[in-house]
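thread: overnight batch results

M.L. [08:02]
morning all. the overnight job finished for the chain we discussed friday. pasting input first so we're all looking at the same thing
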Amino acid sequence: MTTASGRSGGEPGPAIDRRASARGVAALCWSAVALEGYDLVVLGVVLPKLLRDPGWQLTPATASLISSVGLVGVMIGALCVGPLTDRFGRRKLMIATVTLFSVLTLACALVTGPLLFGLLRFLAGLGLGGVLPVAIALVNESSRARGGSATTTLMTGYHVGAVVTSLLGILVIPLLTWRAMFVIGAIPAIALVPLLARYLPESLPVSAEEKEARNPVATLFRGGYLRSSLAFWVTSFMGLLLVYGLNTWLPEIMREAGYELGAALALLLTLNVGAVLGLLLAGRVSDRIGVRTCTLIWFTAAAVFLALLSVPLPGFGVYVSVLLAGVFVFSTQVLVYAYVSHHYPAVGRATALGASSGVGRLGAICGPLLGGALLSAGLAYPWGFYAFAAVAVIGLVAVTFVSKRQPA
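M.L. [08:03]
and the structure it wrote out:
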């Protein structure tokens, strides 16, 4: 008997048209991505408290190492879970990844030292890195939209999760303890697991030919996909370099430009408000003009508005400029994910998304390093914005190397 995922034997997951509507799939995946966003940001929220905990004797260098180890786990998870998803089915891997990071996040609340804490963050990262490729594959397979609105709407969950983490940190840590932040993040994720098992559909069926040739990793390199795969990896590297580089160093760069600390932090908030607006706008535009064309426009606009940030503007003008930069910079990478999802066949879709996300994580690590190097050299303003604009241009060029049509 052939299951909904195209595999023989075993218990099939519920069919999309019988057990879950496209909206139901989107809601479940959005919830998983929101919890991922919470979990990836929570470390930054609790670190100020951990650094002052005499029992931990944590230094900034050790804290940075723990953060980096977690990101390495996310990268490995993205690279590994994608092929497993295409091999064994979306539903099983979504349940597995959410279970993994939720249980390990809860365990983080119980540890008493940095060594075990860092190990748990690495292992939790394996699950966190796998959530996104599976979720994007599922929402795009269940959605009728041909553009990127399904993906951009899904990614608003990440930003909501990040904002909730920051707000809860302000409220919870003074009243309770930093450990409560991990408990608060883990319990909803654990509660989500039975809902995923009950209502989440399995992948759309694949053809008999795809089932016989089921080697998802090979899909990235054969049949004319090699050039597109390399182009997507370069683009993802540049896209996440922009996101993490700007989120880390924009306040300090603006202080170098002469703004007060309060104004610099307000500009960071403005940048992220622009990110949410950009996701909603990019989805609508890509549905109308196509995800490839929209991605090219977005990278072009990101480069332009990043370069314009080097121009001193009075009063309200700088907030408008930063808002527009946020609209285009942050949603470029999400459009890349949407483009990847539409470009590859179902048999290798999650693998391609995982590879793009995994390679992109290297850019996420390099972004803060680039900004820090420019600051150390005294070149952060205005050259920092020129450097980030150049990164956007490289991403734009890489997109043009993606095949305009799906290879045969």
